[in-house]
């Protein structure tokens, strides 16, 4: 049995690339070092976890040689490190937006109640003339809600116009260096088909508008474009979409 095993290792070393063998030996030696340090149950240190996190990003077949823990454990270590890094980077002594005083809240409600045709931008402009610097979202939060006639539900809207609706959205991809890449997807609603996809590290309104133009060249633009309230969709983006003859449909605040 020992002779056959040795013969197999010799034959394997002739065909497997040297870099793969070196990487495999390094991974095995690191696990043996952990087992030698343990008395009963192997205890992994921080440097052991960092070793496997880095190896999982550099070597494609790292799962085949891992025996001391499950591959899902290594992936969990990577996610935990990413969360800790960004929690440390985004720490702040003051959490949340400061509250406005009661007098200003009463004034916003009074202006919206006495002027039912005024929207949020108009109320914000009037407050600015009075010397109050208030965000548009704050005005929208405290103004009086005016009931409007009921419109068709989202289910009816999607059923009637599904073939002419495209949806767009961003998602994030964490990297091993604790950076973030932004993926952009354009999806057709009738068949749930991805018609365009791209990735960038620095998304802008100009870059986003160019992705829509590439997804729907010339006269192929659809009637409706469904999106959320992300600030990336600025004035430049909205003007380019309007120039294509497409109507933007913005989802409700805090909707999934």
List the helices and strands and how they pair.
Blueprint: H1 2-15, H2 18-37, H3 46-58, H4 62-65, H5 71-89, H6 102-114, H7 120-129, H8 136-142, H9 154-161, E1 165-174, E2 180-188, E3 193-200, H10 205-215, E4 224-227, H11 235-243, E5 247-250
Parallel strand pairs: 1-4, 4-5
Antiparallel strand pairs: 1-2, 2-3
Helix pairs in contact: 3-5, 7-8, 10-11
Description:
The protein is an alpha/beta fold. The protein has three domains: 2-89, no CATH class; 102-142; 154-250, Nucleotidyltransferase, domain 5 (2-Layer Sandwich), CATH 3.30.420. The chain is built from eleven helices and five strands. The chain has helices at 2-15, 18-37, 46-58, 62-65, 71-89, 102-114, 120-129, 136-142, 154-161, 205-215, 235-243; strands at 165-174, 180-188, 193-200, 224-227, 247-250. Strands 3-2-1-4-5 form a five-stranded mixed sheet, covered by helices on one side. The chain is elongated, with a radius of gyration of 28 Å. The model has no long low-confidence stretch (mean pLDDT 80).
In short, what is this structure?
This protein has 256 residues and is of the alpha/beta class. Helix content is 50%, strand content 14%.
Which descriptors would you attach to this protein?
single chain; 256 residues; alpha/beta; Nucleotidyltransferase, domain 5; 3 domains; five-stranded mixed sheet; 11 helices; 14% strand; elongated
């Amino acid at each position: 049995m020992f002779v056959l095993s040795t013969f197999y290792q010799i034959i394997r070393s002739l065909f497997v690339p040297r870099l793969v063998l070196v990487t495999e030996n390094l991974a095995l030696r690191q696990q043996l070092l952990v087992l030698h340090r343990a008395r009963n149950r192997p205890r992994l240190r921080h440097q052991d976890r960092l070793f496997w996190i880095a190896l999982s990003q550099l070597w494609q077949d790292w799962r085949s040689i891992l025996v001391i823990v499950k591959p899902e454990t290594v992936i969990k270590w990577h996610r935990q490190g990413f969360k800790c890094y960004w929690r440390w980077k985004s720490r702040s002594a003051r959490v949340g937006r400061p509250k406005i005083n009661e007098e200003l809240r009463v004034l916003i409600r009074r202006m919206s109640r006495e002027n039912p045709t005024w929207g949020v931008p108009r109320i914000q402009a009037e407050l600015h003339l009075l010397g109050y610097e208030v965000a548009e979202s704050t005005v929208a939060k405290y103004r009086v809600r005016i009931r409007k006639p009921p419109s068709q539900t989202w289910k009816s809207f999607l059923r009637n116009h599904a073939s002419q609706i495209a949806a767009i959205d961003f998602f994030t991809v964490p990297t091993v260096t604790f950076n973030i890449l932004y993926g952009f997807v354009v999806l057709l609603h009738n068949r749930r088909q991805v018609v365009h996809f791209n990735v960038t590290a620095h998304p802008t309104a100009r870059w986003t508008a160019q992705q829509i133009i590439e997804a729907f060249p010339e006269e192929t633009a659809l009637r409706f474009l469904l999106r959320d309230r992300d600030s990336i969709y600025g004035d430049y983006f909205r003007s380019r979409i309007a120039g294509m003859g497409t109507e933007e449909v913005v989802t409700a605040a805090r909707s999934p």
